Amino acid sequence: MGIGIAMAVMAxxxxxxxxxxxxxxxxxxxxxxxxxxxxxxxxxxxSVMISPTRSAAIINGVTVRLGEKYGDAVxxxxxxxxxxxxxxxxxxxxxIHPDVEKRESGKVRP
Length: 110
Description:
Elements: H1 2-20, E1 45-50, E2 55-59, E3 62-65, E4 69-70, E5 73-78, E6 82-87, E7 90-95
Antiparallel strand pairs: 1-2, 2-3, 4-5, 5-6, 6-7
């Protein structure tokens, strides 16, 4: 009887572990994010990673390190809110928040 209980506990624990390994941040099935009005198709900068040893960007879900090729372009600059891709036809600046313009604010009152 003790062996049966031990096996049942082990089987239940295995099921619990299998459930825990699913990504809790993954959107539910059938959930879709619509592009904001006025958004353009093409390359979209999703994130940047900057450290003393490397810089990279996530463009359309692909991690691209500084100096690596993305399509026919090379990632030549990584900044905290934008990156630059350079190709034979010119360069493309991708911004994390393309609709947000950073500007200096007025003087802060004490």
